[in-house]
Write a structure and sequence with these properties.
This protein is α/β, with parallel strands linked by helices. Among the domains are: 186 residues, no CATH class; 53 residues; 134 residues, Helicase, Ruva Protein, domain 3 (Orthogonal Bundle). It contains 25 helices and 18 strands. The strands form 2 sheets. An 11-stranded mixed sheet has the order 9-8-18-17-16-10-15-14-11-13-12. Strands 1, 2, 3, 4, 5, 6 and 7 form a 7-stranded antiparallel sheet that branches.
Length: 648
């Protein structure tokens, strides 16, 4: 409807009311004044925002060292939808385009008088054409009905009419690089459905109209603004929609309007866990480090723990004066360690069973060890090993009763001792028949054959057969697996990451502080199907311990391999997807993304110093998906990344 009304309403400058714009001299706008004594505030403003010099050509303007081409929107769609301009912000071709709107309210009484006159003229035209049986009567009748609808709305509701003009300005370092056609094509496509025009030999006026000065210079000459109802104007405003802010840290700016997205991961009702996905160099590690630094500044009672096999978080640890724990072959970590669950957690979560959870974790550890390190999967021997593990805890006085979980935990050497006793006297463990005893002894012999070489004194994994020499004493702890990853194979690194994960998880139960636990290169954990059941349980229960787990990986595929992995993804209340290589269909299926959201991920800018930001898609439970731009201040970038944002 809107573009049909322009010519017929035909209000001149004298009919307009309430304009907030002030006229200005064209030359003053176009070039910064050299006069040092500027008394008028408008002149001061123009001297600041205007370029040093301007060179005009027929379809472009050079402003200082940049070229600009401004498109004027000649027509708008009949029925604009909410978010009509979002694609102008969210597509790769338009991300550096300035969008300017001039909106002036119209006097309602004067507009009603004008509409009434036009309706009468159209009714006369309809009668004449119908008498002559002309086909054009149908189009005129439609125009009359549209005007009548507009008249009824203005007369019978509180709706206000406005005059609107719109400009799109494209900038580039050279005239040849001005890609206004891509911007024009994006503007023509749904849902915008605009008709952009390049004003020839009027680019200077168009640029002034699109500038922060607030003067619609081009339309002072054309007088071709579009009348709109308030509802249509409201649909044009992505500037006040789509973002939110709460006490917390800035994760980035909402790419459609550059408003900050500020939130607190511990304020999510569905849990505190996060997953971050992105190809190498997309900016996922940098954005995570930026979040950690800002979290440390926002809440000094939050404990930060970083598990990193590639030494990528060393700068954050140094900046925050954290403790660096180098994981090698000597520091002890006990996979069987069990920490007591706080009483208030047990009271708040009646179905929580720390004992069963611990046994499941220990068997997960052994599953990984036997499958990937010993190269001899547990298979049918698992029940025999389970019996030995339970007995090892029982000998320490640890049972299902939570009050016993404060006692010293057994070690793998204690399990080996139980297996040796089981080999000598299976009947004392409840195996009565000769067949049972023979089968169990066969199991035990092979179990000991696989366990003893690795966990003996001086064995490759001897540090996993002793008490844990690690605690959450500091506010920032960096678990550096770089040495481990470099000297051992992938399987042993994966096993060690499991052990470290459990060590932090057990200690997070006991601290009164909130804990953010970041696991980089999470594919070491996610790709091992034997650990996924335990990880799912840990993610599910983490919120009870004020624990926020954050998994970082290069592909969303790790979260789609198995039902357990998909459950882990679904339990994460926040998801950050940087640029990835997955197909559109996969992204849409894995994360429930719309076509527009998939397009944003596939065209997201990777971190680079030229742009000064990286792009991602931020998903927040119960809030939706937000196209995100991540920027660091020069100080933040220097502290956490050596001055560069071009990191994984």
């Amino acid at each position: 409807m809107m573009h049909r009304l322009r010519a017929l309403l035909g209000l001149g400058p004298d009919d307009q009311q309430g304009s907030s714009h002030q006229g200005t001299d064209e030359e003053t706008v176009a070039s910064r004044t050299k006069d040092a004594s500027l008394d008028d505030p408008g002149d001061v403003h123009r001297s600041i925002v205007g370029p040093d010099d301007v060179e005009r050509q027929s379809d472009a303007v050079r402003t200082g060292e940049q070229w600009a081409r401004t498109l004027w929107v000649a027509e708008f769609p009949d029925a604009p939808v909410d978010g009509i301009f979002e694609t102008l912000y969210a597509t790769a071709d338009t991300r550096r385009t300035d969008i300017s709107l001039h909106i002036d309210p119209r006097d309602t009484d004067a507009t009603l008088d004008t509409l009434e006159n036009h309706i009468e003229e159209l009714e006369a035209d309809v009668e004449y054409l119908e008498d002559k049986h002309r086909a054009g009567a149908r189009g005129i009748r439609k125009d009359r009905d549209d005007y009548q609808e507009l008249y009824d709305v203005l007369r019978n509701t509180s709706m206000t009419a406005f005059d609107v003009s719109m400009y799109l300005t494209v900038r580039a370092d050279t005239r040849a690089n001005l890609d206004s056609e891509s911007v024009a094509n994006a503007a023509r496509r749904a849902p915008a459905n605009l008709t952009p025009v390049t004003p020839r030999w009027a680019q200077k006026d168009a640029l002034v109209s699109a500038s922060p000065i607030g003067v619609d210079k081009l339309n002072e000459r054309l007088d071709a603004r579009t009348p709109m109802l308030g509802a249509a104007v409201g649909a044009m405003f992505p500037f006040v929609a789509g973002a939110f802010a709460e006490p917390g840290i800035e994760y980035g700016t909402y790419a459609l309007n550059e408003s900050p997205l500020v939130l607190d991961r511990f304020n999510r009702e569905t849990g505190y866990c996060t997953m971050v996905i992105g190809k190498l160099g997309a900016g996922k590690s940098f954005s995570t480090k930026l979040q950690l630094v800002r979290r440390a500044m926002f809440d000094q009672d939050t404990m930060l723990v970083m598990l990193d096999p590639l030494e990528g978080f060393a700068g954050v640890n140094d900046a925050l004066d954290g403790e660096r724990v180098t994981i090698g072959g000597t520091r002890g970590f006990n996979p069987l360690e069990l920490k007591a669950t706080p009483r208030h957690v047990l009271d708040d979560v009646p179905d929580l069973d720390p004992w069963s959870e611990q046994i499941a974790w220990v068997l997960t550890f052994f599953d990984t060890f036997f499958a990937h390190v010993a190269n001899n999967p547990l298979d049918d021997r698992k029940q025999t090993l389970r019996r030995a593990v339970q007995e090892a805890y029982a000998r320490q006085g640890i049972t299902r009763d939570p009050t016993t979980h404060t006692r010293a935990s057994p070690t793998i050497r204690d399990v080996i001792a139980v297996l040796e006793d089981l080999l000598d006297a299976p009947s004392e463990f409840g195996y009565v028949t000769a067949g049972e005893q023979e089968r169990v002894q066969d199991d035990v012999e092979t179990l000991l054959t696989d366990l003893r070489p690795s966990f003996r004194e001086g064995g490759d994994l001897t540090n996993l057969a002793t008490e844990t020499e690690f605690d959450l004493d500091g506010d920032v702890i960096y678990l550096d697996l770089h040495q481990e990853e470099g000297t051992r194979g992938r399987s042993e690194t994966s096993l060690m990451m499991q052990v470290l994960f459990n060590a932090v998880y057990e200690r997070a139960k006991q601290t009164d502080k909130r804990v953010v636990f970041v696991v980089d290169e999470a594919h070491y954990l996610m790709a091992d199907s034997t650990s996924l059941e335990f990880l799912e349980t840990a993610v599910r229960h983490s919120r009870h311990y004020d624990l926020s787990l954050q998994f970082i990986t290069q592909t969303g595929g790790e979260f789609a391999l198995t039902p357990e992995a998909r459950t882990i993804a679904n339990l994460c209340s926040m998801t950050v997807i940087h640029r990835v290589d997955e197909a559109a269909e996969q992204l849409a299926e894995w994360f429930g993304l719309s076509e527009r959201e998939v397009n944003w991920v596939q065209t997201a800018k990777a971190g680079n110093d030229a742009d000064g930001y990286s792009e991602a898609l931020l998903g927040v439970d119960e809030e939706g998906w937000f196209p995100l731009r991540v920027r660091a201040s020069p100080f933040e970038a220097e502290v956490i990344g050596g001055g560069s944002i071009e990191e994984g």
